[in-house]
Design brief:
Layout lengths: L6 H18 L12 H20 L7 H26 L1 H13 L6 E3 L4 E3 L1 H16 L2 H11 L8 H46 L9 H16 L3 H20 L3
Antiparallel strand pairs: 1-2
Helix pairs in contact: 1-2, 1-3, 3-7, 3-9, 4-5, 4-7, 6-9, 7-8, 7-9
């Protein structure tokens, strides 16, 4: 493939590269310190080469001040797009953290290989499942397609600031609602188990029923997570579709 490295193409390449880097540095797993920065820059450069011919045909800044302003707007657009995607994809990890709190799995510390920080066991498990599903089902191709289509709109501007704020607030509500939907049924079962143990302790006070509480909770959590794991792909698909749609609404992508 022959690339015409003209001045407009180079300006378009730099602008797309700025948005792509800002987007990738927010979206997992590329936001992780475990991913080499050179790999992230290489992926951003590949996206820039893909989109630069499209942006080259539009109006481009011709002076230094305009170029710096356009770079700032591209970075802001990439950060907003990445934040929405990362917020929605973190729903499963938040649901796992909720289950850790009520299931008694927060005692042993664990190191998340994606973020290189200590995290809850089930939160880390759900996060890795989401990343695996994104690559196994080509979900990241949908996200990349949404990123490319974001250049069909004007990008971040004063007119779109209100839409961006409204979308972020709405997605925060979706984040908490979806996390509760994923963890809620298991939490209800664990609460019912605590009630049953309380009734048993009243019926047979001589038996130390509460000694069974912790192992029973852990057992129920593991079994119920295994049973409900088949529902996670549908949630991931819905969240990816929601993230792409929100990006299109924020910046006018087609």
């Amino acid at each position: 493939m022959q690339i015409d490295i003209s001045a407009p193409w180079l300006i378009a390449f730099v602008l797309v590269l700025a948005r792509a880097l800002a987007w990738l540095l927010v979206v997992a797993p590329f936001s992780s310190a475990a991913i080499p920065r050179m790999a992230t820059v290489g992926i951003a450069a590949g996206l820039a080469m893909l989109v630069a011919p499209q942006l080259e045909r539009g109006p481009l800044p011709t002076d230094t001040a305009g170029l710096l302003g356009a770079l700032v707007l591209q970075i802001a657009t990439g950060l907003a797009l990445g934040f929405v995607v990362q917020l929605l994809l973190s729903t499963a990890s938040a649901a796992g953290s909720m289950l850790d709190q009520v299931g008694g799995l927060t005692i042993p510390p664990s190191l998340d290989p994606l973020t290189l920080s200590q995290t809850s066991l089930l939160g880390q498990f759900y996060e890795q499942i989401v990343v695996l599903l994104l690559f196994a089902t080509n979900g990241y191709m949908i996200l990349i397609d949404g990123f490319v289509r974001s250049f069909s709109g004007p990008g971040f501007s004063l007119q779109s600031a209100g839409t961006v704020g409204t979308t972020v607030v709405t997605d925060l509500g979706t984040f908490f609602t979806s996390a509760l939907e994923m963890a809620g049924p298991i939490m209800v079962v664990l609460f019912a188990a605590q009630i049953v143990l309380g009734l048993l302790s009243k019926a047979a006070p001589q038996a130390n029923v509460w000694l069974l509480g912790f192992p029973l909770q852990v057992f129920l959590v593991l079994v119920l997570v295994a049973i409900t794991m088949s529902l996670v792909p549908a949630y991931v698909t819905e969240l990816v579709t929601r993230a792409v749609g929100d990006g299109a609404r924020m910046f006018g992508g087609l």
